[in-house]
Specification:
Structural class: alpha/beta
Strand content: 5-15%
Keywords: Hydrolase
Domain Histone deacetylase: 16-285
Order of helices and strands: EHHEHHHHEHEHEEHEHEH
Distance between the termini: 7 Å
Number of helices: 11
Largest sheet: 8 strands, parallel
Number of domains: 1
Pfam families: Hist_deacetyl
Helix content: 40-55%
InterPro entries: HDAC_classIV, HDACs, His_deacetylse_dom, His_deacetylse_dom_sf, Ureohydrolase_dom_sf
Strand order of the largest sheet: 2-1-3-8-7-4-5-6
Family: Belongs to the histone deacetylase family.
CATH topology: Arginase, Chain A
Number of strands: 8
Length: 299
Amino acid sequence: MIAYHPIFVHTLPDGHRFPMIKYELIYEQLLYQGIADSSMFFSPEVIDDRFVFATHDDAYWKRALGLTLSPAEVRRIGFPLSKELIEREQRIAEGTRRAAIYALNTGCAFNIAGGTHHAGYDWGEGFCLLNDQAIAATYLLNEEKISKVLIIDLDVHQGNGTANIFENNDRVFTFSMHCEKNFPFRKERSDLDVGLPDGVTDDDYLKQLEVILAQLFEKVNPAFVFYLSGVDVLATDKLGKLKLSMDACKKRDLLVFKHCKRRAIPVQISMGGGYSADIRHIVDAHCQTFKVAVDLNLL
């Protein structure tokens, strides 16, 4: 199943439509290319606050709900604070939580949005107020009695919020492979961080990732995987600083999915970042991730 809701696009504050319009375009492109059909999609409701409070600081989220975050906190988030923005975050988080439940039962599920990995325990940052995969992981651990979760974050930016939330949680292993000299400039400590130099190309990236994933799946032996498949690793990305091709993104996704399939481990995927000047590159790269899962009979 795939989480999608047009509120991801239409209720953002003025001036912040691009690249958020990608969510609507991904949905349309998946249908147009026949990668997915309308029966595979669901629209998430607003998440119950109890699932948020299980992951984030109560006081932080209550201030966000009341639109009383300080000017400094709002600047750190990067979006003007509004009821519409809060609702968007609530629906994204619920989409990933429900997608995780679907994946638990069927093997694989996506959220067209999500990947809000810069939101920490008591702070928002980098256009993220709630950490969707951290909320879903906490739900699975607490409510579904999942024993061990592996979070694979292959966005070009470190998953600093995710690392912060699970810093002292031995039931969650956080792995972030990112561009070292890129946002966030103050990194948190994941269980495994691989900081890449600027300009890394396909072969170098894939060789490192292949070795790391083989070791991680063996060492962690997860019961569930969350995968953040950001496409800001592309050479065309305005903010990424890495030099990966579209084909390398496909092979990257394939490496993750093959490990999950070989071990019959459920996987939930959130889209993460993508900031290429031509939005077609962003949409095509994200849709390619869905197609890889379909071709492997995961979705």
